[in-house]
Structures are given as structure tokens and as C-alpha cells.
């Protein structure tokens, strides 16, 4: 148990390479199996599997999920970023049932999209369209995902959201003036993701519908709630997806992180750290109990007695003595000792050629362990 604790602690404090951290978490998961809560270990194992899966795929792409409540304007934001009407924007709620992807720079993205489980009919490649404008290249390497609503009445929607929020390298949370304070998003997503602030951006959409003199106060309120969630570093951008306000800022925010090609590593590293902290916490920091030396020795004695070790030691001793006197005694009488039975042979054990190795048949004639010896062990 101390090994597990040490492993997890090192993982938490060390700034080391992602591969090392992953190895550390793998080792801690193996050590924790059967010792810590199964659910916790299972979660840690899922993190290991996900990280191993993602690290095998394109490091040139950054998967950006656009998430939020129903009607907050995810699809509108997605369309504004792509400059295309790819995702259905609806009046009827909820509109988006399946994630849609738009990829800028498709080379190497196919396997990534497969891993994300986005069917081909829900994928669009930005460079397949004639796109000569300079800004078209700004988002090179981005795989933008329009997600269904997390607060849906449809169970399949939040299952899909949860799955993709887990896999994305970066997340854009779309809030709206009516529901930005909903516990549903803060308690279920934002707060638990406070360890992942580096990979998140929040937008306050529908800002055109907020009277101008109230915008500042509302943004301040969103900021306060995010600070409470532990997301002090996460930027909040006022946006009107409908009118295109704030879209260039959002684009720049995404583009900078995508260009740094760090988001996927930051994400995995935050996941690994979170899992490690949980394992370390569950394992506690009490010193592992050590047994007093006399008790260890008593146990060793009982086990060796039950296994017949003293009988063999005694037989070896007597056998060596008999052989020695046969070899070195005065020839006139030494032949007498050869007549004595070899104590080792009686146990179906024998001293090898040079009397240094003990050789035996698979089944020796060592006495069976008695009930008393077993009880002592
Ligand atoms: N005035 C205004 N309307 C907006 C804005 N963004 C979206 N809308 C409208 O809000 C409604 C919902 O927008 P969607 O983009 O479909 O929202 P969504 O989050 O994708 O919704 P679901 O897919 O159902 O979860 C649509 O009627 C949009 O036209 C905005 O910034 N300002
Ligand atoms: Mg939608």
C-alpha cells in the first residue's frame, strides 16, 4: 500500500513528462486493484485507457467541444465559427441530437474522428471547400464539435455530451442570460472540471438580447460564479452568435491554443492528475504497519517447521558427517560407516556429486505437515 501511495504522490507533485505520469498512474491502478474502491480504480483505469488512445492519434489536431444548455446557442456559435450553416439551428428544443464535426486540415484527422465516434455523415472538412481567405487558416488543426444539450430530457443527449466532454482536448461552454447560473451546468460540469481550467473557455451568448446597460453587471456575475467554481483562469467572452459579436475573439482564443498544440497534453495531464489525487486521497497517508521482528521470526519458524525444514537440515548434517568419515576416516574402520543408512536417502533426497547440492525426487518422503504445525502457522 505504501508503494501505491508513493506512486500517486510522486505523480501529483512531479511536473514530469506525460508518458511518465501515465506509467505512474498505470502502476498505481494495478496496485490499487482489490485494495481501494472498485469504482475509483475503474475510473482511473478509464483515464489510462483514454490517454493511451488519444496519444496514439494525431497530435496536430485539437478537439474542441462546444457544450451548453439547450437553446444556449451552441449550434449558432458552431456555425458562426465555421462560417457555414452546418448545424441545424432550431426553434424547437432540443434541436441537436448527435454531435457534428467540422475539421480544419483533414490530414490525419480520420482516425481521430473514428475514435471520437463521429459518423462520416456528421463530418465536414473545412479545407474541402474553396477557402482562400486568410482567416480560413487561423483554425488549422481544429476539430470543432457541436454537441447536444447537457440538460436534455433525452437521456441519449447527455450520454453523448458526457462521452465527448470526456474526450475533447478543449471545451467551449456556451451560457445564456437565462440559464447561466443553473446548478445543472455548474455542479455537474464546471465545478468538477476546475482542475481543467487551462483547456476551457466560457462564452455568454445572446448578449444582443441583454440591454446594453446590464451587460457589464451580467458578465461580472458570470465571472463571480466561475470564480466560485474554481475557474479563475477561464476567460469569459460576451458573444452574439446571431450577429457575429465576439466571434473573432472566440476564434482567436481557440486558434492560439490549437496552434500551441498543447491542449491535448494539458487535458490528459489534468485527467491523470485528478485520478492520481483521488487514488492518493483514498489510500490515505498513514504509515503502513510493520510487524515486530520477533513476530516475523516466529512466523518464519512456524512455516519452516511445517514445511519440514528442520528435518531436512538435520538429515543433511548427519549425511555429510557420515560421508565425511567414510572419505577421511582410517581405512581400516571407515568402511563401517558406509554400512550406516544415509539419512537423506531415507527422505528420498540425496546430496549431489560434491555434497553441496540437495537433489530430490518430485515427491520426497518428508513427513506430512501435522495438524498442530498447520494450526501454529
Ligand atoms: N438573438 C439571438 N438569438 C440567438 C443567438 N444565438 C442563438 N440564437 C437563437 O437561439 C435559438 C437556439 O439556438 P441554437 O443554436 O439552436 O441553440 P443550441 O444550443 O444549439 O440548441 P440545442 O441544439 O437544442 O441544444 C435559435 O432560434 C437561434 O437563432 C444570439 O446570440 N442572439
Ligand atoms: Mg444545437
Write structural notes for this entry.
- The structure is a single chain.
- The chain folds into three domains: 1-58 and 262-290; 60-260, Rossmann fold (3-Layer(aba) Sandwich), CATH 3.40.50.300; 293-376, no CATH class.
- The strands form two sheets. It has a seven-stranded mixed β-sheet with strand order 3-2-4-1-5-6-7, sandwiched between helices.
- The mean pLDDT is 87.
- α1 packs antiparallel against α10, α2 runs parallel beside α10 (263-283) and α12 runs antiparallel to α13 (331-339).
- The longest helix has 21 residues, at 263-283.
- The chain is built from 15 helices and nine strands.
- It is α/β, with parallel strands linked by helices and 377 residues long.
- The chain has helices spanning 2-13, 18-32, 38-56, 74-82, 110-116, 155-167, 183-190, 212-229, 247-260, 263-283, 293-306, 309-328, 331-339, 343-346, 371-376; strands spanning 62-68, 100-103, 123-125, 142-146, 170-175, 200-204, 236-238, 349-351, 358-360.
